[in-house]
Write a structure and sequence with these properties.
With 471 residues, the chain is an alpha/beta fold. The protein contains 13 helices and 14 strands. The longest helix is centred in the middle third of the chain and has 21 residues. Bound molecules: zinc ion (2 copies).
């Protein structure tokens, strides 16, 4: 957002605050908000939930035996926390299962490579593939390539991921990961490899979903660790063919059923309006899924539990959703969008960016609710959270749901400076979570969700989405 637009939004917020002054929160509701901030400071529940999940279940790729265990864990845990409504809703899906994989450089100098298959990758033939590398410094160069350089070769895209507090480096790199195999396949390549989508320099590969466009030959796809990508880049300078061997096994299209696990605090006079918050219960197989997304399911469940324990009765229904299969297909979000398409939602909000502290609060609510949104933003300031504008975006799961019905959104920006050091690697483990920082997340969520539940103004319906011309 540019400065001018930001200033305009602040003005709009301030004006509507004045107009909506009469329609604000009761002193009792604000007192509960203060109590929640305080109670959150004393609660370790979110950290304990991640600890329990990763210790008792561990990695939980969608459709696996551990995914089932995670669903059982979630149902039992939410019941034991005392939520009045707990249920698991079936989500049928086609699972992908990683097999054995290895790759190494054969020429001009032999080098082993640390690598991992991308989710949904097809397998190589049993004997593997040996071919010359077609090197591209980034994804744009591959997309612009009209030559036959990739034909019969293993495409390697050396796309680097920028470290940023708000995680903006992930967008272009994850696009390279998801669309790269299709671009390689179109050009007659035998396989697709990418520099790990990560900001670390660890010799660990980052997995993540990829996909294939219809009608294009599907080529095996994998990521090499960042230091191994550096090696491949250095090998270019000898002006000799760089050759690689890769063998990658995988099973695709396995029929499986996972579940969205749901806990609710039923509302009172506005019970038919839902505040849906959550994260995803599944994880990649390489690590323990602590930051991605044990943290998100724990933060949102712990925030709802704080509200439950406050004894205050929310006007609107608070629904915690632990989504199935975010990582490799978004099946849980699609199932939710379909099942609840007719239901009024006060908002949807997702926590799926680790456990770093929240520094900014944004909304997407109808103009009549901007005054209330500003009061909520004021209530988050003591927690170190700045007010953003009304152009909040949401995560992958709630994004699917939001777009399906143009729903209002709360968005909490977390400091993700180190998130992509660990994301989708074997290093996604509990020690990456700071108990004090995850506690601040719970305080913010509990305060904002409570006030959204009590709002004198509905956040919906949003004005119809206008198609903006490209800039
Ligand atoms: Zn995630
Ligand atoms: Zn992920």
């Amino acid at each position: 957002m540019n400065q001018f637009r930001r200033a305009g939004l602040a003005l709009a917020l301030a004006l509507s605050f004045g107009a909506a002054g009469a329609q604000s929160f009761s002193d009792a509701d604000l007192a509960v908000a203060a109590k929640l901030r305080e109670a959150g400071q004393a609660s370790n529940l979110a950290y304990e939930l991640v600890d329990s999940l990763v210790t008792e279940v561990g990695a939980r790729p969608a459709g696996s035996a551990n995914d089932k265990k995670a669903v059982d864990w979630a149902v039992a845990k939410l019941k034991s926390l005392g939520f009045p409504v707990v249920r698991a809703e079936p989500v049928p899906l086609k699972a992908w299962k990683r097999g054995e994989a290895h790759a190494h450089i054969t020429e001009p100098f032999a080098q082993p490579l640390v690598m991992t298959a991308l989710g949904m990758s097809v397998a190589t033939p049993k004997e593997g593939i040996s071919a010359e590398i077609a090197y591209y410094p980034d994804f744009a160069t591959l997309k612009a390539d009209t030559s036959d350089k990739a034909k019969g070769r293993i495409v390697f895209v050396d796309q680097k991921t920028e470290r940023a507090k708000d995680g903006r480096g992930y967008g272009p790199s994850s696009t390279a990961r998801t669309q790269g195999p299709t671009e390689a396949g179109k050009r007659g390549a035998l396989a697709f490899a990418i520099r790990s989508v990560g900001t670390d320099h660890d010799r660990l590969a980052h997995t993540g979903a990829t996909r294939y466009a219809e009608g294009v030959p599907a080529v095996p796809a994998f990521a090499v660790s960042v230091p191994d990508a550096d090696t491949i880049a250095r090998l270019q300078r000898y002006g000799k063919p760089v050759k690689m061997h890769v063998s990658l096994q995988a099973e695709l299209g396995i029929d499986a059923v996972s579940h969205n696990v749901i806990a609710e605090i039923p509302g009172t006079d506005l019970a038919d309006e839902v505040i849906a918050i959550g994260g995803h219960l599944d994880s990649w197989d390489l690590g323990q899924g602590a930051i991605d997304d044990g943290a998100g399911v724990a933060i949102t469940a712990a925030a709802a539990k704080l509200i439950l324990d406050s004894g205050a009765k929310p006007r609107r229904t608070i629904r915690v959703v632990m989504f199935a299969n975010e990582e490799n297909g978004l099946d849980g979000a699609r199932a939710y969008a379909e099942k609840y398409k007719g239901q009024k939602h006060q908002l949807v909000a997702e926590s799926d960016f680790g456990a770093g502290p929240i520094y900014r609060f944004q909304t997407r609510v109808r103009p009549e609710a901007l005054g209330v949104a500003l009061v909520i933003a004021e209530q988050l300031k003591p927690l170190g959270v700045e007010a953003g504008g009304n152009e909040g975006r949401t995560g992958a799961d709630t994004g699917v749901i939001q777009r399906a019905a143009n729903l209002p959104v709360f968005s909490f920006s977390q400091d993700g400076t180190d998130y992509f050091d660990f994301h989708h690697t074997a290093n996604d483990t509990l020690d990456k979570i700071d108990p004090a920082k995850i506690r601040q997340n719970v305080q913010v969520w509990a305060t904002a969700v409570w006030l959204a539940a009590q709002s004198p103004v509905a956040f919906h319906p949003l004005p119809a989405v206008e198609k903006k011309p490209a800039q």
